[in-house]
Amino acid sequence: MVNMNSITEEMRKELAFTEEELKELEQARKMPITFDEDCPEVSPEKAIKFRRVNPPRKLAGKSLA
C-alpha cells in the first residue's frame, strides 16, 4: 500500500481518474446488477460458506479489519 503523503503531485495526477472515466463510473453506478448462469446471485447460506482467499494477517494482537 502506498502512503499518499509520500507521492509527488505528478504521480497524483497520473493516478487520478480522467473526466471520461468519472462519467463512465457514474453511468455504471446507475445500471442495475444483472445475474446470469455464469454469475448467479449468492444466497446468504452460500455466502456463509465462503472463505477468504487471503485471510487477514495478525500483527501483534491487532486486527487490520
Largest sheet: 2 strands, antiparallel
Give the overall shape, derived from the CA principal axes.
flat
Helix content: 25-40%
Strand content: 5-15%
Q: Tally the structural domains.
A: 1
The unreliable regions are none
Structural class category: mainly alpha
Number of strands: 2
Q: Walk across the major sheet and give the strand order.
A: 1-2
DSSP helix count?
3
Radius of gyration: 19 Å
Provide an overview of this structure:
- By secondary structure, the protein is mainly alpha-helical.
- It has one domain.
- 38% of the residues lie in helices and 6% in strands.
- The protein has 3 helices and 2 strands.
- It has helices at 9-15, 19-30, 44-49, and strands at residues 58-59, 62-63.
- A two-stranded antiparallel ribbon has the order 1-2.
- The longest helix is centred in the middle third of the chain and has 12 residues, at 19-30.
- The chain is flat, with a radius of gyration of 19 Å.
Q: Outline of this structure?
A:
By secondary structure, the protein is mostly helical. The chain is 38% helix and 6% strand.
